[in-house]
Task: structure prediction
Amino acid sequence: ERLPEAAAAFQRSIQCSPDYGDAWGLLGVVYFRMGDVNRAIECSYKAVAYEKENPSHPLDLANHLLAAGRVDDCVAALREGLRMYAHPRWAEGAHKLRLALLEVLLKTGNLSQASAEAAAWKGLPSTDPAVRLLLLDVARNANLTDVLNALESNP
Result:
């Protein structure tokens, strides 16, 4: 891969336009692929700050934080992303953020918070098979019968 060249190109873009959020986000992805997680995190924080029109930036930030073992920061970034993209215009982005949050909470053994997030989807069952399976798993493990019933009654 030509990651160093890609990093240099994004750095030049940022020099020309320091508040170009997408360039910061892509530079973060490049650094992450190069194994420089700390620089990836720094860039992703800037991407989130500068680019309010791209829900993928909080997802990238969360992935980088999780890779660095910063689970609490990862969860906080996902929750902040959900707050930022609460408007129906961003429904698809919010959907991906909530799914990522559920996955992180389950993988880190935080069943009570995962249950609360699953309950937040009560009455809004998803047609995405991956989301439905995840919600069913959370609902069964947490004994959330109302969520389970809503999911099972809306295939």
